[in-house]
């Protein structure tokens, strides 16, 4: 069975991606990601089977998870990379003070669905801790330098990293 497309966080980004990453780390880029991308990308990704998003310069996966209180399925686009068969997600919330809702939902309901490039599979989420979390977060920063900036902004919390294994 084919899984979510592999993404190697150690691959250096192209010049165009570096430029777009730099734009994403700006104040305007952060606003765009929070206010536009997070709202528009789930629909764009579904309609184009993962081929088009407002932030196409990032590897994106759609995660669907029940709301921790409502139980209503919520779908959110997330930057990801892979390690072996696991999909790695970083709960940065653009460096905001609180954890993102999707992370809290996945902690409450670890059985989630991931979709990317037309592939949709069931996964089981777990939080990486200790040395594993530190290693995966360092890889997150290699994938996108903005995670380092988000870490500086999120002074009241440690940014969690989730590892998701196919069910």
If you had to describe this structure to a student in words, what would you say it looks like?
This protein has helices spanning 15-24, 27-47, 101-108, 130-143, 146-153, and strands at residues 60-66, 73-83, 86-90, 111-116, 119-127, 161-166. With 167 residues, it is α+β, with helices and mostly antiparallel strands. It has a single domain (15-166), classed as Roll (Pnp Oxidase, Chain A), CATH 2.30.110. Strands 1-2-3-6-5-4 form a 6-stranded antiparallel barrel. A hairpin with a 2-residue loop joins strand 4 (111-116) and strand 5. The longest helix is centred in the first third of the chain and has 21 residues, at 27-47. The N and C termini lie close together (12 Å).
Task: Chart the SSEs and their pairings.
Elements: H1 15-24, H2 27-47, E1 60-66, E2 73-83, E3 86-90, H3 101-108, E4 111-116, E5 119-127, H4 130-143, H5 146-153, E6 161-166
Antiparallel strand pairs: 1-2, 1-4, 2-3, 3-6, 4-5, 5-6
Q: Which labels suit this protein?
A:
six-stranded antiparallel β-barrel, 167 residues, Pnp Oxidase, Chain A, globular, alpha+beta
Distance between the termini: 12 Å
What is the assigned CATH homologous superfamily?
Answer: Electron Transport, Fmn-binding Protein, Chain A
CATH topology: Pnp Oxidase, Chain A
Our count of domains comes out at 1
How many strands in all? 6
What helical percentage do the residues reach? 25-40%
What does this entry show, briefly?
This protein is an alpha+beta fold. The chain has helices at residues 15-24, 27-47, 101-108, 130-143, 146-153; strands spanning 60-66, 73-83, 86-90, 111-116, 119-127, 161-166. It has one domain (15-166): Pnp Oxidase, Chain A.
């Amino acid at each position: 069975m084919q899984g979510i497309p592999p993404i190697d966080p150690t691959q250096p980004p192209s010049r165009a991606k570096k430029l777009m990453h730099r734009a994403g780390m700006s104040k305007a880029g952060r606003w765009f990601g929070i206010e536009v991308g997070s709202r528009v990308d789930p629909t764009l990704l579904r309609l184009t089977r993962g081929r088009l998003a407002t932030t196409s310069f990032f590897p994106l996966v759609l995660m669907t998870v029940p709301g921790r209180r409502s139980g209503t399925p919520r779908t959110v686009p997330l930057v990801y990379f892979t390690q072996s068969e696991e999909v790695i997600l970083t709960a940065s919330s653009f460096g905001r003070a609180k954890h993102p809702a999707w992370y809290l939902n996945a902690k409450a309901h670890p059985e989630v669905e991931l979709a990317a490039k037309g592939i949709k599979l069931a996964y089981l989420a777990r939080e990486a801790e200790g040395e594993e979390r530190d290693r995966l977060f360092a890889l997150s920063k290699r994938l996108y330098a903005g995670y380092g900036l988000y870490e500086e902004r999120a002074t009241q919390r440690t940014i969690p990293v989730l590892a998701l294994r196919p069910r």
